[in-house]
Amino acid sequence: MPKTMELFADIIIEAGIDHVFGMPGGATPFVLDPFVDRQDKIKLVLGRHEGAAACMADMYGRITGKPGVLIGQGAWIGSNGAFGILEAFLAGSPMLVVTDFSDYAGLIQHGPYQNASGDYGSIDLPNIMRSMTKYTTIASNASEFIHGVQLAIKHATTGRPGPACVIIRFNVVGEETDREHIAPKLYPLQGHLNVAPACISPHDAQRAAELLVSAQRPVLIAGRGVHAARAHAEVEKLAELIGMPVATSYMGKSAIAETHDLALGIMGIIGQKAANDWIVGADVILAVGTCLAPDNTKMLSPFFIQPDKQKIIQIDLEPRNIGWTYPVELGITSDAKAALMAIRGEIKGKAQGIDSKGRVAEIRKFKAERNCFQSEMFASDAVPISPGRIVHAVNEIIAPEDILVLDAGNNRMFFANLFQSKKAGQVYAAGGAAGMGWGVAAAITAQLLNPRRRVICEAGDGGMFMMLHCLETARQYGLPITYVVLNNATLGNVSDFLAPGRKGMTEYSEPDFSVIANAMGCLGIKVRTIAELAPALKEAVASDRPAVVDITTAPTPHFVLM
């Protein structure tokens, strides 16, 4: 009779998942063991740290729409791993977490070493996990474990995606069972997943179409839900049909190629002036896959979005997100792709009187007057190098098929504002919890899943330091990621809010990541001057190995973007 863990591995493969990320410990080496015999169907990726492995699993969920599988020991998944689980929970990424109580010898009530059951003498892992997952269950036997895994996959992917967790007792890893002995009866996984997402009604599609057709100055605001629904083409087609400009939330960046005439860039405090000005002047706002959170709406400024003067149509897979921050004229619980297709279908017969070409010309002029995706920093020859000049250099070398991964901190703010995506879906960014170092680890998954595409990850020196071990992981798996490090020897975002002479622990001596990279078997290039910048980037992206371009960067405060 096969072991329970072999049945578990087969269910993961049955779900179409082809990568597992982890850091073995406690009972989990035995959970991972069956995958060794199935490496023709699934790849095991050692994260070197639970937090990094969780970020890799998060990115897997974003790219594939399937749960990224994270496996590791309970105490460290609930602490270290929380770094990436929190991001997935708040960003809406599907994830399956399989972990353990470390209840050695079955002494769960007597405080064995590293016990995480929540009993006296242990940490309370179930409550930790429930605080940052959609679903957490405890498995005391083989049947509970196998059913728990199926249900966790279902919960992770049904409705608004997110993490789901199964915590096992130590005895489960040694049990032998097969499908016939699982109780209650075990059915094929797909039967639990044949659930269509919420879909717009014909009445709501008609009402939304009427509001958009009658609008004089509409705008579409695209959030991360557009990426999750793979609705990029639908955003572009609807926008083009009526000449409607598209702004995005930070997490929605590249929902439409930002080189498109109708693209306004990101909105909010660090957003493009063109995006913000158009939103203020809009009469109808179509918000798709965004809850219009404070960080995207100038902290819910009453002078930015004004629902007493503007009509808001809000589309979201999670009904609680609709009308959460602003009251709406029309709230639609639906998958973004289905809703946009239906609304476009309704508009086709009603849009004859709309001068879409004239609107496009107006928007192009509007953007030019506000220097959309332009900055004085692009031409700056100052040393240390301006962060805007670095963004401009990346803009120059990146191709439409390349992937850009943004980390957290001031570095990502400059890229969010000034980087102009050339293709829809080109940018992946930390923004759920937005922890420093997320991008450094997440870029590994982006490259694993896209071996023929170039992956560029920008990070600050703070985030790079937190995830230095990812260079070894990239080297181990032969991943030619280019890390562009904006190195200002400062925790810039924190420092910006502190007075001169009061910056305390935010400043330190400048590290040299190029030396570290070379010592780890990667390509490391140090850039201190403008003349070195473009050649270094070109050499790094042309390299067939992991590369770090460490750029001495001016400590420019992010306030200049506002």
Task: Tell me what you see in this structure.
The protein is an alpha/beta fold and 562 residues long. The chain has 3 domains: 4-193, Thiamin diphosphate (ThDP)-binding fold, Pyr/PP domains (Rossmann fold, 3-Layer(aba) Sandwich); 202-369, 3-Layer(aba) Sandwich (Rossmann fold); 376-561, Rossmann fold (3-Layer(aba) Sandwich). It is built from 22 helices and 18 strands. The protein has helices at 4-14, 28-36, 50-64, 74-77, 82-91, 125-130, 142-157, 190-193, 202-214, 224-228, 232-242, 273-281, 336-348, 356-369, 387-397, 410-418, 438-449, 461-466, 469-476, 492-495, 513-519, 530-542, and strands at residues 19-23, 43-46, 68-72, 95-100, 135-139, 163-168, 218-222, 246-248, 263-266, 284-288, 311-316, 330-333, 403-406, 427-429, 455-460, 482-487, 523-527, 547-552. The strands form 3 sheets. A 6-stranded parallel beta sheet has the order 2-1-3-4-6-5. A 6-stranded parallel beta sheet has the order 9-8-7-10-11-12, sandwiched between helices. Helix 3 crosses helix 17 and helix 11 runs parallel beside helix 13 (336-348). The N and C termini lie far apart (64 Å). The mean pLDDT is 96.
